[in-house]
Amino acid sequence: MLLGEKELKIVEILKQNSRLSIRDIARKTGIRPSTVHQKIQKLTDEKVIEKFTVKLNNKAVGENFIVFMLVKTKPNVILDNKVIQNEHVKEVFGLTGEYDLLIKLKFNDIEEFNDFVIKFRKEQQIETTLTMVVTANVKEELN
Question: What is the total count of domains within the chain?
Fold first, then answer.
């Protein structure tokens, strides 16, 4: 689906605050409420909008220890769903180059992270990992 000017305006407003009412979005965009409703429904139906969600405060929800892990797997290995569905795994990207995957993880503390890494390396066919611990969260977005 190619996004027009109206859809782009609506999406920009939703990216800032997806809790706004149709009426508030209409007011901010200058688009009639019925049109806003139809456009949002179409964007959702066509999977342009995959889901509406919240951005949480990492510290408040016990996920202030953030780690990025580069992973090199053994040939023809695909991570099982147990890893991908793990509560600590927030994002997984396939990569080109020396490593196969980039995984974003969030934990309460270093002990929780250490427990995860020990299990992860035992259960998966991993050749190498390179772990980077976040020292400052400068910018983090959901979109």
Answer: 2
Domain range for 16 is: 5-45
Cβ atoms of 99 and 93 closer than 8 Å: no
| pLDDT tens sequence across 85-136 | 899 999 999 999 999 999 999 999 999 999 999 888 877 778 889 999 999 9
CA distance 66 to 139: 13
Same domain flag for 74 and 127: yes
Report how far apart, in Å, the C-alpha atoms of 89 and of each of 2, 82, 103 are. Answer: 32, 10, 7
Under 8 Å between Cβ of 71 and 129: yes
| pTM tops 0.70 | yes
